[in-house]
Protein backbone atom coordinates (compact mmCIF):
# COMPACT_ATOMS: atom_id res chain seq x y z
CA UNK A 1 0.00 0.00 0.00
CA UNK A 2 1.21 3.50 -0.82
CA UNK A 3 1.90 6.01 1.94
CA UNK A 4 -1.03 7.95 3.29
CA UNK A 5 -1.42 11.49 1.97
CA UNK A 6 -2.02 14.47 4.25
CA UNK A 7 -4.29 17.30 3.15
CA UNK A 8 -4.15 20.25 5.57
CA UNK A 9 -7.46 22.13 5.66
CA UNK A 10 -6.70 25.84 5.45
CA UNK A 11 -9.93 26.49 7.34
CA UNK A 12 -7.74 26.30 10.46
CA UNK A 13 -5.00 28.55 9.03
CA UNK A 14 -4.50 32.24 9.84
CA UNK A 15 -6.75 33.86 7.20
CA UNK A 16 -4.83 37.15 7.49
CA UNK A 17 -1.70 35.35 6.26
CA UNK A 18 -3.18 32.71 4.00
CA UNK A 19 -0.47 32.76 1.30
CA UNK A 20 2.25 32.30 3.91
CA UNK A 21 0.26 29.52 5.57
CA UNK A 22 -0.09 27.62 2.30
CA UNK A 23 3.65 27.96 1.65
CA UNK A 24 4.36 26.76 5.18
CA UNK A 25 2.28 23.58 4.92
CA UNK A 26 3.70 22.92 1.45
CA UNK A 27 7.22 23.11 2.92
CA UNK A 28 6.10 20.98 5.88
CA UNK A 29 5.17 18.08 3.60
CA UNK A 30 1.49 18.52 2.73
CA UNK A 31 0.40 16.36 -0.21
CA UNK A 32 -2.77 18.28 -1.06
CA UNK A 33 -4.04 21.69 0.06
CA UNK A 34 -7.63 21.13 1.26
CA UNK A 35 -9.85 24.16 0.68
CA UNK A 36 -13.24 24.18 2.44
CA UNK A 37 -15.83 26.24 0.59
CA UNK A 38 -19.04 26.96 2.55
CA UNK A 39 -22.07 29.05 1.63
CA UNK A 40 -24.09 29.55 4.83
CA UNK A 41 -26.88 27.52 3.23
CA UNK A 42 -25.68 23.96 2.60
CA UNK A 43 -23.71 24.27 5.84
CA UNK A 44 -24.01 26.82 8.65
CA UNK A 45 -20.80 28.75 7.90
CA UNK A 46 -19.40 30.98 5.16
CA UNK A 47 -15.77 30.70 4.09
CA UNK A 48 -14.07 31.41 0.79
CA UNK A 49 -14.77 31.69 -2.92
CA UNK A 50 -12.92 31.36 -6.22
CA UNK A 51 -11.13 34.72 -5.81
CA UNK A 52 -9.25 33.39 -2.79
CA UNK A 53 -8.39 30.12 -4.56
CA UNK A 54 -7.01 32.14 -7.46
CA UNK A 55 -4.98 34.37 -5.14
CA UNK A 56 -3.44 31.31 -3.44
CA UNK A 57 -2.60 29.48 -6.67
CA UNK A 58 0.85 31.09 -7.17
CA UNK A 59 1.91 30.14 -3.63
CA UNK A 60 2.22 26.37 -4.19
CA UNK A 61 2.40 23.71 -6.87
CA UNK A 62 0.66 21.14 -4.63
CA UNK A 63 -2.79 20.01 -5.80
CA UNK A 64 -5.71 22.14 -4.62
CA UNK A 65 -8.29 19.76 -3.15
CA UNK A 66 -11.41 21.93 -3.21
CA UNK A 67 -14.30 20.70 -1.06
CA UNK A 68 -17.51 22.42 -2.09
CA UNK A 69 -20.16 22.56 0.65
CA UNK A 70 -22.48 24.76 -1.37
CA UNK A 71 -25.87 24.36 -2.99
CA UNK A 72 -26.61 24.75 -5.82
CA UNK A 73 -23.10 23.73 -6.82
CA UNK A 74 -23.21 23.52 -10.64
CA UNK A 75 -23.11 27.31 -11.26
CA UNK A 76 -19.79 27.58 -9.40
CA UNK A 77 -17.82 24.66 -10.85
CA UNK A 78 -16.39 26.72 -13.72
CA UNK A 79 -15.26 29.47 -11.35
CA UNK A 80 -13.35 27.09 -9.10
CA UNK A 81 -11.89 25.19 -12.05
CA UNK A 82 -10.62 28.41 -13.63
CA UNK A 83 -9.29 29.64 -10.27
CA UNK A 84 -6.89 26.69 -10.12
CA UNK A 85 -8.62 23.80 -8.39
CA UNK A 86 -7.15 20.37 -9.22
CA UNK A 87 -9.71 18.17 -7.46
CA UNK A 88 -13.29 19.38 -7.06
CA UNK A 89 -15.47 17.50 -4.58
CA UNK A 90 -19.23 17.86 -4.28
CA UNK A 91 -21.96 16.42 -2.09
CA UNK A 92 -24.78 14.39 -3.68
CA UNK A 93 -27.35 16.63 -1.91
CA UNK A 94 -25.94 19.77 -3.57
CA UNK A 95 -27.76 19.38 -6.86
CA UNK A 96 -30.39 17.30 -8.65
CA UNK A 97 -28.06 15.35 -10.98
CA UNK A 98 -24.84 14.16 -9.34
CA UNK A 99 -23.62 12.29 -12.41
CA UNK A 100 -24.03 15.41 -14.54
CA UNK A 101 -22.16 17.53 -11.97
CA UNK A 102 -19.22 15.10 -12.01
CA UNK A 103 -19.15 15.20 -15.81
CA UNK A 104 -19.10 19.00 -15.63
CA UNK A 105 -16.08 18.91 -13.30
CA UNK A 106 -14.27 16.52 -15.65
CA UNK A 107 -15.11 18.67 -18.68
CA UNK A 108 -12.66 21.21 -17.25
CA UNK A 109 -9.94 18.56 -17.04
CA UNK A 110 -10.23 18.38 -13.24
CA UNK A 111 -10.43 15.39 -10.95
CA UNK A 112 -13.94 14.76 -9.66
CA UNK A 113 -14.69 13.90 -6.05
CA UNK A 114 -17.84 13.07 -4.16
CA UNK A 115 -18.40 13.50 -0.42
CA UNK A 116 -20.64 11.65 2.01
CA UNK A 117 -22.06 13.40 5.06
CA UNK A 118 -22.32 11.23 8.18
CA UNK A 119 -26.02 10.65 7.42
CA UNK A 120 -25.46 9.86 3.73
CA UNK A 121 -25.17 6.15 2.90
CA UNK A 122 -22.74 4.59 0.42
CA UNK A 123 -25.70 3.75 -1.81
CA UNK A 124 -26.11 7.47 -2.61
CA UNK A 125 -22.96 7.32 -4.75
CA UNK A 126 -22.99 3.73 -6.00
CA UNK A 127 -24.18 4.91 -9.44
CA UNK A 128 -21.17 7.23 -9.87
CA UNK A 129 -18.34 5.01 -8.59
CA UNK A 130 -17.10 4.60 -12.15
CA UNK A 131 -16.88 8.38 -12.55
CA UNK A 132 -15.00 9.50 -9.45
CA UNK A 133 -11.33 10.11 -8.71
CA UNK A 134 -11.86 10.70 -4.99
CA UNK A 135 -14.39 9.77 -2.32
CA UNK A 136 -14.46 11.98 0.78
CA UNK A 137 -16.01 10.55 3.93
CA UNK A 138 -17.09 13.22 6.41
CA UNK A 139 -16.36 12.17 9.99
CA UNK A 140 -18.00 15.35 11.35
CA UNK A 141 -21.10 17.19 10.27
CA UNK A 142 -19.60 19.68 7.81
CA UNK A 143 -19.40 23.35 8.68
CA UNK A 144 -16.61 23.90 11.16
CA UNK A 145 -13.11 22.82 12.03
CA UNK A 146 -12.26 21.50 15.45
CA UNK A 147 -15.16 19.06 15.89
CA UNK A 148 -14.96 15.50 17.25
CA UNK A 149 -14.52 12.46 15.00
CA UNK A 150 -17.74 10.46 14.53
CA UNK A 151 -16.59 6.86 14.86
CA UNK A 152 -19.81 5.43 13.38
CA UNK A 153 -18.35 6.33 9.96
CA UNK A 154 -15.59 3.70 10.18
CA UNK A 155 -17.72 0.86 8.72
CA UNK A 156 -18.55 3.20 5.80
CA UNK A 157 -14.84 3.75 5.16
CA UNK A 158 -14.27 -0.03 5.23
CA UNK A 159 -17.13 -0.63 2.81
CA UNK A 160 -15.85 2.05 0.42
CA UNK A 161 -12.34 0.54 0.56
CA UNK A 162 -13.86 -2.76 -0.59
CA UNK A 163 -15.80 -1.13 -3.41
CA UNK A 164 -12.81 0.93 -4.56
CA UNK A 165 -10.53 -2.11 -4.59
CA UNK A 166 -13.12 -3.92 -6.71
CA UNK A 167 -12.97 -1.09 -9.26
CA UNK A 168 -9.35 -1.88 -10.04
CA UNK A 169 -8.31 1.72 -10.68
CA UNK A 170 -6.91 4.39 -8.37
CA UNK A 171 -9.52 6.35 -6.39
CA UNK A 172 -8.49 8.39 -3.34
CA UNK A 173 -10.38 7.49 -0.17
CA UNK A 174 -10.21 10.65 1.91
CA UNK A 175 -11.46 11.25 5.45
CA UNK A 176 -12.37 14.70 6.75
CA UNK A 177 -13.16 15.87 10.26
CA UNK A 178 -11.73 15.37 13.71
CA UNK A 179 -8.50 13.77 12.49
CA UNK A 180 -5.73 13.60 15.09
CA UNK A 181 -3.00 11.03 15.73
CA UNK A 182 -5.50 8.62 17.30
CA UNK A 183 -8.33 8.93 14.79
CA UNK A 184 -5.84 8.98 11.90
CA UNK A 185 -4.85 5.46 12.89
CA UNK A 186 -8.49 4.32 12.94
CA UNK A 187 -9.18 5.89 9.54
CA UNK A 188 -6.06 4.35 7.98
CA UNK A 189 -6.86 0.93 9.45
CA UNK A 190 -10.33 1.21 7.92
CA UNK A 191 -8.76 1.85 4.51
CA UNK A 192 -8.43 5.63 4.11
CA UNK A 193 -5.43 6.85 2.11
CA UNK A 194 -5.88 10.64 2.33
CA UNK A 195 -6.41 12.44 5.64
CA UNK A 196 -7.75 15.98 5.87
CA UNK A 197 -6.38 17.70 8.94
CA UNK A 198 -7.17 21.26 9.94
CA UNK A 199 -6.69 21.65 13.66
CA UNK A 200 -4.11 18.86 13.83
CA UNK A 201 -1.93 20.53 11.19
CA UNK A 202 -2.18 24.16 12.21
CA UNK A 203 -1.78 23.75 15.99
CA UNK A 204 1.34 25.31 17.48
CA UNK A 205 2.31 27.71 14.68
CA UNK A 206 4.37 27.28 11.49
CA UNK A 207 7.42 25.78 13.19
CA UNK A 208 5.25 22.83 14.28
CA UNK A 209 3.59 22.05 10.94
CA UNK A 210 6.18 19.54 9.76
CA UNK A 211 6.09 17.68 13.09
CA UNK A 212 2.30 17.71 13.11
CA UNK A 213 2.07 16.31 9.56
CA UNK A 214 4.70 13.66 10.28
CA UNK A 215 2.82 12.54 13.38
CA UNK A 216 -0.37 12.01 11.38
CA UNK A 217 1.41 10.13 8.62
C1 LIG B 1 -15.56 20.57 7.95
C2 LIG B 1 -14.45 20.69 6.91
C3 LIG B 1 -13.17 20.11 7.37
C4 LIG B 1 -12.61 20.74 8.60
C5 LIG B 1 -11.64 19.80 9.24
O1 LIG B 1 -16.75 21.00 7.37
O2 LIG B 1 -14.83 20.06 5.70
O3 LIG B 1 -12.22 20.08 6.33
O4 LIG B 1 -12.02 21.96 8.33
O5 LIG B 1 -11.19 20.40 10.41
P1 LIG B 1 -10.55 19.56 11.60
O6 LIG B 1 -9.40 18.80 11.04
O7 LIG B 1 -10.16 20.63 12.55
O8 LIG B 1 -11.63 18.67 12.12
ZN1 LIG C 1 -13.30 19.58 3.99
Automatic annotation (TrEMBL):
Gene3D superfamilies per record: Aldolase class I
CC cofactor: Fe(2+); Zn(2+); Mn(2+); Co(2+)
Taxonomic superkingdom: Bacteria
Record: active site: 36 (proton acceptor), 176 (proton donor)
Binding positions (substrate): 9, 67, 143-146, 176-178, 198-199
GO biological process terms, semicolon-separated: pentose catabolic process; pentose-phosphate shunt
Keyword Manganese among UniProt keywords: yes
Catalytic activity line of the entry: D-ribulose 5-phosphate = D-xylulose 5-phosphate
EC number assigned by the record: 5.1.3.1
One matching Pfam family: Ribul_P_3_epim
GO molecular function, one term: metal ion binding
Keywords: Carbohydrate metabolism, Cobalt, Isomerase, Manganese, Metal-binding, Zinc
Gene Ontology cellular component terms for the protein in this record: cytoplasm
Sequence positions that bind a divalent metal cation: 34, 36, 67, 176
Statement: the UniProt record of this protein carries the keyword Metal-binding: yes
Function: Catalyzes the reversible epimerization of D-ribulose 5-phosphate to D-xylulose 5-phosphate.
Similarity-based family: Belongs to the ribulose-phosphate 3-epimerase family.
Name recorded for this polypeptide: Ribulose-phosphate 3-epimerase
Taxon lineage: Bacteria, Pseudomonadati, Pseudomonadota, Alphaproteobacteria, Rhodospirillales
Gene this protein is translated from: rpe
Amino acid sequence: MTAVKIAPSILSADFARLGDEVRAVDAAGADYIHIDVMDGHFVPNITIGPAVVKALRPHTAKPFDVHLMISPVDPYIAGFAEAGADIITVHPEAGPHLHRTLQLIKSFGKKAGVSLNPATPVEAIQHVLEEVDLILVMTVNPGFGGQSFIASQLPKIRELRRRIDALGRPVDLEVDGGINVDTARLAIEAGADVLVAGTATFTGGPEKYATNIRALR
